[in-house]
Design a protein that fits this description.
By secondary structure, the chain is mostly helical. The protein has one domain. The chain has three helices and no strands.
Length: 73
């Protein structure tokens, strides 16, 4: 057996899933993963506290960069 990890654009996701669903159930296993990693409450709290503390120091970053850091850290 082989394992693949795919990143699929929303516009073709349903079409691909339809194709995969017609394959024999005993020959393929579909495991869906969330695009965004889970973050614990404590990690989120720490990130918010750091952001709030840095506001008064004028050490903030652009919103899009902040979102990317949260998603990919």
């Amino acid at each position: 057996m082989h394992t693949l990890r795919l990143t699929i654009h929303d516009t073709i996701y349903d079409k691909l899933m339809g194709l995969l669903e017609i394959l024999p159930k005993d020959k393929i296993e579909i495991i869906e993963e969330n695009e965004y990693p889970a973050i614990s409450f404590d990690e989120a709290k720490l990130k918010v506290e750091q952001a709030i503390n840095n506001i008064s120091k004028n050490e903030g970053i652009d919103l899009s960069h902040a979102i990317e850091k949260v998603i990919h850290s």
